[in-house]
Amino acid sequence: MPPTPPTVVLPPASSVSVVIPPASSSGPATSAAETTSSAPPTSGTGTAVDPGQDADLDELVPGLYPERVVENYKRTAISVSRPVADGAPALTAAAARWVQRQYDDFVTDTPPGEAPTELNIGWRVSAVAGPLIAVRFTMYLFPGASGVNVFHTIYSDEATGVATTGAGLIRPEQRADAVQLITSALRAKGFDPDVETLADDDVTTLLDGLTFAPDGSVSIVVPQGLILPLSDGSPVVPLSQQQASAYLTAAGQRFRQATRSPSEFRPGSRPATSPAAASSSPASTGSTSTGSTSTSPTSPGSRSSATRSSGVGTRTQQPSTTRPPTPTATPTPTAVQPPGTSVNCAEKRCVALTFDDGPGRYTDQLIDELTAAGAPATFFLLGPQADAYPATVRRLRSAGMVIGNHTMDHRNLVNMDAAGQRAEVTEAAAAIEAAGGGRPTLLRPPYGSYNATTRTLGDPMVMWDVDTEDWRNKDATVTARRAVDGASNGSIILMHDLHRSTVQAVPQIVSQLRAKGFTLVTVPQLYGAPLQPGQLYFSRNRVR
């Protein structure tokens, strides 16, 4: 069941004060390590749309990395991410506040019940030029029925320290006209919008759907369920050139130009002003945030060219956004992953350590600990994390660790149709391969949640029989005790390398398991034979 909302879920990104317009709002699930949940795919959601920037713009933002929180309760799955960027305190703080609010609202408004629930937030850079940077969030909210897709963009000018949302880029005197335009366009398309009782906050939420495309076109993505039935999805209302010029503030015109002509992020510079922006009105006096420059955290290193940029923000053990320095990148090795034949686990008492959700800020330290102890392990990576930490991915492979797939967005796969599930797996595989990790051939579905469709995706599915619940306890002693006490011959132990306490627990786990006579192996070594697509591997002695 969801917990009482903590006072702080995400570490404060900086001292920046942010005000943005209000927006709308243990082991595999169900039992130990074997959910067969048949929750229906998202129903009544219509077609989710995201007509934003498709280019891999995160490469233009040095020092940008994702912070992520993953929580797994009996029937509640939470995975949220936010950006942290060098030289972008206004964006970083605005993103942290918005993500925090969505988390708090979900935990408060979604009571425990029999139906599975899910909150998933991802993001990507949608515009960048000079000091201008925009990040577009994609949120999937499943409160037990009728899943909802939410799109939300934060626009930040780091030269002035002002961050706002789509509504803040529309001239205040044009807001009523914009609502009328949206209403008329929807009716012309055959929709029946209900705008009779729209409150001011609802108008802000509606106009927050303002979106710029790479060709310079402007549109409004209508939030799902706000003025239309959920089944109508999120229709897009395009604006003409004349309408865009009339509605947009000067800041809006600059972000439109930044989307059309992206360039490297430079916090102290000013982007070239387009003729349209020069002739527009002064910047909106609507909801904004101001902030000052902060010391930049250490950059994760060179990025890979993954299929897309996505990410989200981690609850960290320490309230800090400064990451330990990333070790010098190791060249991508030519050797393949361990074939799984060097240890005979039919004769030895073997245990496999596995780590999910990374790589992250503590993974390099974990590699050091495992390498020093001569202990192999298996890592199931998320696509955006691999994209953000390619040097760490290469270190994992070079150190002889096995790399598996943990999907792209950490969605609960049972809430997705076949095409969505396949995209989650194939896009993550491409991102991991682009980062230097090779093409993964093992899959661990997020939350251990799967259905019959998941078993057709073409990969063996690695589950577990020992759950340390390290994400919940965040205590090295407790994590070590649960790992060691729960282990038996052939066990697969679940941990998460996003947490410092987990890394601190690993030396204890390794030494205590060996003292009990266990040999530490990778998952392929545990079985000593090729794992079969669609099969579920909970331990050496439990395969389904």
TrEMBL record:
Pfam families: Polysacc_deac_1. The keyword Flavoprotein does not apply. Residues 21-48, 266-321, 331-341 have a biased composition (Low complexity). It comes from Nakamurella aerolata. SUPFAM superfamilies: Glycoside hydrolase/deacetylase. It comes from the Bacteria. This is Polysaccharide deacetylase family protein. PROSITE patterns: NODB (PS51677). Residues 21-54, 253-342 are annotated as: Disordered. One of its GO terms (molecular function) is hydrolase activity, acting on carbon-nitrogen (but not peptide) bonds. One of its GO terms (biological process) is carbohydrate metabolic process. The keyword Aminoacyl-tRNA synthetase does not apply. Residues 349-521 form the NodB homology domain. The lineage of its organism: Bacteria, Bacillati, Actinomycetota, Actinomycetes, Nakamurellales. One of its GO terms (cellular component) is membrane. Keywords: Hydrolase, Metal-binding. InterPro entries: Glyco_hydro/deAcase_b/a-brl, NODB_dom, Polysacc_deacetylase_ArnD.
